[in-house]
Amino acid sequence: MLNMVFLTNSWLSSFDQPGLCITVAVLLHYFLLAAFTWMCLESVHFYLALVKVFNVYVPKYILKCCIAGWGIPAIVITIVLVINKDFYGKGSHPESTPFSNFCWIQENIAFYVSVVAYVFVIFLTNTAMFITVLLQIHSVKSRTLKRSRIWKR
To answer: What SUPFAM superfamilies is this protein classified in (predicted)?
Structure first.
C-alpha cells in the first residue's frame, strides 16, 4: 500500500483538493510508519526465535503483533492529526520544482518527530536485536567448538 499511495500521490495532488491531499499524505505517512513498525516486529521475532528459543510462548502472538504493527502507526498519525491537521498538505514550493505536486508533511517539527525520530528508534531497536542475535550465534558456535575439542580428546 505504501508503494501504491506513493506512486499515485503526485497524480492525486494535481486535483487541487485540500481534503484529498491531506488524506493522501496521512495514508502515505501511515503506511510508511507501518512498514517500519513491521520491520521492528520482525527483528523482535528474530530475537525470540534465536535467543529466547525455549519457553517462549506468547498467547495470541499474531494478534498482538498485528495490533502493534497497525496500531502504533495509527496512534502516531492520530496524535499528529489532533495537534493540527494542516501539518499535512501540498508542498509550498514554486511550480518549477519537480516536487511541487506532492502531498506530505509540511511542518518540519512534525516531520522530524513523527518520521525521523520514529525511524531512528526502530533503527536502534533493530541494531540492538541484531547484535544480540549475533552474540548468541557466536556463543553457540564457540560452545560447539569447545565440546567437539573435548570429544576429540
So the answer is: Family A G protein-coupled receptor-like (SSF81321)
